[in-house]
Amino acid sequence: MIKNDNHISDLGVVIQHPAPTASVDNGSEEFKSLNIKLLDNDSVYENPAWFNSNCYSLTLAIDATGRYTTKTNSFDVTPGTFFFSSPDIYRQLEWYNMGEIYHITFSERFLIKYAGAELFRTFPFLILETEVPKLTDAEISEDLRKIYQQIDIEHHGSSPLKKNIIANLLTRLLLKIKRDFWEDYDTLSSGDKELDIVKLFIKNLEHYSLQLQLGKISVQMRVKDFAKMQGIHENYLYNVIKERTGKVVSQWITEKTILAAESLLGDASLSIKEISYRLGFTYISYFSIFFKKHTGLTPKHFRESIIV
Amino acid sequence: MNTFQNLAPAATLHTEKSAEYFKAYNTNTNLSSHKSFLKPRITTIRKFNDSLSFMDLPVFKYIDREDFAIVKIEELGMQIPYQTPVFRPDHFSIIIVPDGNASYRVDDKVFEINQNSILFIQPDAFVSSKWMSINKAYNISFNNSFLAQYWPAGIDEIRKLDANKGYATKFTKETMENFECICLNIYDEAISSAPYKHEIIANMILNLLILIRQQQHKDVPLCPKEKYNSYVAAFLKDVEDNFSRIASGEDITLMRVKDYANNQNLSELYLSKIVSATTGKTANQYIHDKLINEIKYLLKYTDKPMKDIAAIYGFNDLNYFYNYFKKHTQNAPGSFRKDFNIPRVNKTNTAYTNQII
Fold this sequence. Notes:
The complex is a heterodimer. Chain A is an alpha+beta fold. Chain A has helices at 12-16, 36-39, 108-115, 119-122, 124-128, 138-156, 162-181, 193-214, 223-230, 234-245, 249-265, 272-278, 284-295, 299-307; strands spanning 2-4, 31-35, 46-52, 56-70, 74-77, 81-85, 91-106. In chain A, strand 4 (56-70) and strand 5 form a beta hairpin. In chain A, helix 8 (193-214) crosses helix 9 and helix 8 (193-214) packs across helix 10 (234-245). Chain B folds into two domains: 3-219, Jelly Rolls (Sandwich), CATH 2.60.120.280; 230-346, Homeodomain-like (Arc Repressor Mutant, subunit A). Chain B has 15 helices and seven strands. In chain B, strands 1, 2, 3, 4, 5, 6 and 7 form a seven-stranded antiparallel β-sheet that branches. In chain B, a hairpin with a 2-residue loop joins strand 3 (92-106) and strand 4. Classes of the chains: A alpha+beta, B alpha+beta. Chain A binds chain B through residues 115-117, 159-161, 164-165, 168-169, 171-172, 175-176, 178-179, 183, 268-269, and chain B through 151-154, 156-157, 194-196, 199-200, 203-204, 206-207, 210-211, 213-214, 217, 222, 227-230.
């Protein structure tokens, strides 16, 4: 059974458990924090459904055991385990015992908007790694736990800038994780040929999106171009990307273009016409239609909504 | 304790640079020494580390960068009360005081700092301070290049802060504990040699800035943000920069609107138009006001001879300087200085007296 839940909740509990979950401000929220300890939930929970989410999640199990399964991988969650998952990966979570678990889900957009982080460039492991880090050091685990707790406190607070603070704490959490687990992370050094293709593709894509935003290039890239960059056939690239990431190449490109458009629209000194040329659209109307199709808002409305 | 006696031997001992400053301000010191009160000495020092060594305070080994430093002020071993000379920093400072007592003067404004207060100072302002007691206090200084290197998005956060040169506020005990906790974390990172420590430090500085911004919005409800214009921002930054360079003697020419416009490849008219649209003053008026404020500061808080002040800002003719000042303030520079000094001596209970105890 495959359940496609497009909301952020990817820990089974959130979907079905009636317990008071962290309140969500509005439907399109991009961030969520959950502290299982606070939920006072001693019951054993099993969620046999496969599910999928459009967010990244970071989970720290302080006092819990369970099993986490993806299509390619499966491992036991023991006390002191830290694991994360990327969007669009079908996974299954089972909990045998839930004493103290901290769980955060967030979207790439959330980090870009509130912390200005280039997710891939700063934290490449989030996108590319599936291996699970185990916490052996009590000190590290305590360190991370403190940040999780702070995030949780902020999340329930009412500060007008709480999202900025949460994004700030979240990047700190990721930086610490980077320091503790992937200190000398090399983005291109696995023995797996297909994984290398994925990594290189994402790297090229990030580069492309950055160039777009800086106004250095103004052409739309296609699957063919990315395949050419690696010297492989586009069908091969298409298959590898789809197999490994669950998304097709054009979807990756579209998402990046939308993110670039959103960030350019935030800069009030650029006209929409200029933005559409920068992103490689020859007609503004085509840009508007494209933008509306993927975000539900026209560029003009989007700009008004973020400036107010 | 006379601050100058305190400083003089140290300063001469130090680098050639401080010897130069000393020579340059020698007349200043002599003049003031036989008066009943002393004004804090003005220096041209801009870097935090230099200012520490100028005051003969320890520059700890862990401070290994020019663009970031954190110190526990109580560890500096200042003799209380301690009056610092005037600096014109090129960096931001966040002074966090869980327990202590000081008054800071940032340009023309005086900030009383006591328990559970913090002070945020922007670069390119005259800063001097007087510490009455220090039990626990932190000073974090950093500049734009540090953030640009380790967390480029942080520049945006600074832009969102209140544009005043100094901002002080008092916190509740709980909030202060949070601040202190962040400070201690930064300190721990600073003295460690862990990888990515600068990224984490930059991240925590941002956290402090967000908390400060949050407080600013609490104090003054958020008003509709004026339209941000990158040309105007660059112009304002250039003006600050030019004045700082003049004050520190690196530069002697006062830039005109034309020069600023050339800098950005804009026409003079257009620059003036957009500046007045965002700031409400024409570019020319903005520069004049800034210049008058700088001169006023020097007249009030230093004993620099009028001739020197005029020379710094490129007035070759002293008469022209007098006329210029009078035209813009309706007061002659000499009487302006006198008016400021006389009531000052009589006021004994102003918190920030220039008297040396």
